[in-house]
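Bit of a strange request maybe. I'm writing a small parser for structure token strings and I need a real example to test against, not something I typed by hand. Could someone generate the tokens for this chain?
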Amino acid sequence: MESQRGKRLIWKKLGLGLSGFLLFVLALGMMKEGAGGLAPLLRDHLAVTNTADSMGFGLLMAYLVLGGSPVAAAAVALLSASTLSSLQAFTMIAGSRLGACLTVLLVGFVYTLRGHEQWAALTAGILSLLLTGSIQLGSLPMGLLILSRGWLNDPSIPALEGLAAGVNQGLEPLLGPLVAFLPDWMLFVAGVGLVTLSFRLFDHAMPQVRLERTDLGQVSRLVYRPEVMFLMGLAITLFTMSVSISVGILVPLSARGYMRRENIIPYILGANISTFADTLVAAALLGDPRAITVVVTHIVCVAIVSLLLILLAYRPYERAISDALAWITRRRRNFTLFLSIIFVIPVALILL
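Reply from user aminoacidic:
Good idea to test on real output. This should exercise your parser:
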């Protein structure tokens, strides 16, 4: 009986995964087709005309959809339709990665409402914002330089590109009527909605990760090594295809005292690298070398900055982040100021 139930569960998850992938490809096609008509809206009404604007736009979109992956996919679709430049797509993706951290903070708020100690529940979310912000701050100048000089131009992923051609051709009969029936802006918005739904399906297709049940006491020496937690964050995020999930699971662990700040920091640094895996797949499926270049540049820059910190300056970096965390959680006034800054930054970037 248990064996049959297990088989049904496996087939169900495979079906959800396949449905999520096909929906993801369809959504990318819709966003690409609709993105071209958004140029006047972005330029004239939302004033997205430079790299600061596009970063703020990515942040705000990630806040609204409570996730960075759909916004990053939208960025590469806008680039593929030449609505955004490579530099603007790069900064929009950076904004989406930072905006995704808000989801982790919201999970912490939920745990606080369930009776857990406030600052223990919010630690993972605050650290996620601090760490992602600092890594992006270090990688942005490097990435913009690499893109402007063309040092990583035209990388290719033949296997994914061949798969993309076949899947896109199969979905053309469905995409064609949608393109003919819906206006560009509605096509793009519907695509963003569908790509968000596709990631939900992927989430349900993944095996449940319940690290809070692990007896961490047996491996305490292992998890206190920064390089081990770095690799764990990288691997779990690559497996779940969502930094919101892989970092979100730290909230219950932190609230219950299983994970401390020393463990969380290198874990999030690793997660910030492999979080680009789904965006790289999206870029390859779109079949645009410019999109692949932008995502690969992100991965390279974030990896360089993170590895330099882990290998050469981890202790000073950890102290600086810990001091910032201590200041934010010392008083409610400090935390309120921190939240205000989070929401003011994207508005300020767009108004620049």
